[in-house]
């Protein structure tokens, strides 16, 4: 009972801090509330972000601290941006390896076409095979990266991609792709390595990796 009371009081205090911080534009009380509620409910949520793009600065820091990295993504725009650049330059001697899974731009299963049809309802520019072309550009980029960095492995997947998953030895970033919403605008949750969702994200990646095709 005492633990319950302490938990409730802590949550109330955190809520008050979060509301006040919202007026002041401060982010840390929101993170405190997430951690408190996550601990109370046993969810293992380390952080949450309203959008995936808002998580990218912290993602870069977590990648720099990682021992290994697994990436499952759709278009993979973030792979070409600042958060991954230090990883690709192979400046982290402790980093053991990076595995990247991208959709097959040839789209034999029609998954990219279906996602494009879903997106065109809110983004008229997403048509005419544009998504497959964007994925193809990312694949070409990652081929060059992998050729220069032996720690990087790239594989292509012919399956429905409904989330971006980035897993390290410490954390798992999970972004569910919402219908008609770009991944960068979808919510992002970060799970600690001792959580069930972390285990799920890693299991999901490993299972898809086993049935994917290697890229020379």
Keywords summarizing the entry:
216 residues, alpha+beta, Endonuclease, Chain A, 7 helices, 44% helix, 19% strand, globular
Shape: globular
- Count of the separate structural domains: 2
Structural class: alpha+beta
CATH superfamily of the largest domain: Endonuclease Chain A
CATH class division of the largest domain: Alpha Beta
Radius of gyration, taken over Cα atoms and rounded to an integer in Å: 19 Å
Q: Could you give the order of strands across the largest sheet?
A: 1-7-6-5-2-3-4-8
Give me the strand/helix succession.
Answer: HHEHEHEHHEEEEHE
The count of β-strands is: 8
Beta-strand percentage? 15-25%
Poorly predicted runs of 5 or more residues: 1-26
Distance between the termini: 59 Å
Q: In oligomeric terms, what are we looking at?
A: single chain
Q: In CATH terms, what is the fold-level topology of the largest domain?
A: Endonuclease, Chain A
Task: Write up this protein.
- By secondary structure, the protein is an alpha+beta fold.
- It has two domains: 1-42; 44-214, Endonuclease Chain A (Endonuclease, Chain A, 2-Layer Sandwich).
- 44% of the residues lie in helices and 19% in strands.
- It is built from seven helices and eight strands, in the order ααβαβαβααββββαβ.
- It has helices spanning 2-24, 28-41, 56-64, 82-88, 111-119, 130-148, 196-210; strands at 45-49, 68-72, 97-103, 152-157, 163-168, 171-176, 188-192, 213-214.
- The chain has an eight-stranded mixed β-sheet with strand order 1-7-6-5-2-3-4-8, sandwiched between helices.
- Mean pLDDT is 82; it is low at 1-26.
């Amino acid at each position: 009972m005492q633990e319950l009371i302490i938990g409730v009081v802590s949550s109330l205090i955190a809520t008050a801090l979060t509301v006040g911080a919202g007026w002041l534009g401060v982010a840390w009380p929101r993170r405190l509330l997430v951690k408190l509620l996550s601990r109370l409910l046993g969810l293992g949520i380390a952080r949450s972000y309203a959008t995936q793009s808002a998580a990218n600065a912290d993602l870069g820091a977590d990648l720099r601290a990682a021992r290994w990295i697994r990436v499952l993504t759709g278009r993979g725009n973030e792979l070409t941006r600042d958060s991954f650049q230090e990883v690709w330059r192979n400046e982290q001697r402790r980093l053991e390896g990076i595995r990247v899974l991208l959709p097959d731009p040839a789209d034999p299963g029609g998954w990219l076409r279906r996602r494009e049809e879903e997106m065109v309802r809110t983004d008229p520019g997403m048509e005419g095979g544009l998504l497959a072309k964007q994925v193809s550009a990312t694949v070409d980029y990652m081929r060059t990266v992998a050729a220069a960095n032996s720690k990087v492995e790239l594989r292509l997947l012919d399956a429905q991609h409904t989330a971006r998953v980035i897993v390290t030895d410490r954390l798992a970033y999970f972004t569910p792709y919402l219908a008609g919403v770009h991944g960068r605008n979808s919510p992002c949750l970060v799970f600690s390595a001792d959580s069930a969702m972390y285990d799920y994200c890693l299991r999901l990646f490993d299972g898809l990796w086993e049935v994917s095709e290697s890229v020379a």
